[in-house]
Write a structure and sequence with these properties.
7-stranded mixed β-sheet, 4-stranded antiparallel β-sheet, globular
């Protein structure tokens, strides 16, 4: 079983910043594509950002492009999402995911393993 645990969520004012972390156990991150998704109340889960296993390729959804930065530390088995200039519409539960397909990294079905999620709330 691959275990992923998100942390770093919380309540922040619009324009503020948060840094989310996704911690894995053992050799979890080696050769895996890692991604972030989010789900707002009453909405479908949507893609946020992804990083290839070597960190050389990164992708972002249009709503977060230029504001969020995804990074990974394979040696520490940790994935990060730095979120700046937060907006109320960023409010959601954020999920960390691991999979084996970079070419389908925007699709939730491409990921085999998921964390439990961490709540991010941005006040106006």
């Amino acid at each position: 079983q691959v275990q992923l645990v998100e942390s770093g969520g919380g309540l922040v004012q619009a324009g503020g910043s948060l840094r989310l972390s996704c911690a894995g156990a053992g050799r979890t991150f080696e050769s895996l594509t890692m991604g972030w998704f989010r789900q707002a109340p009453g909405k479908e889960r949507e893609f946020v950002a992804a990083a290839s296993w070597g960190g050389g390729s990164k992708d972002y959804s249009d709503p977060v492009k230029g504001r969020f930065t995804v990074s990974r530390d394979n040696a520490e088995n940790t994935l990060y999402l730095q979120m700046n200039s937060l907006k109320p519409e960023d409010t959601a539960v954020y999920y960390c995911a691991a999979g084996v397909s970079w070419s389908r990294s925007r699709l939730s079905n491409a990921y085999s393993y998921w964390g439990q999620g961490t709540q991010v709330t941005v006040s106006a």
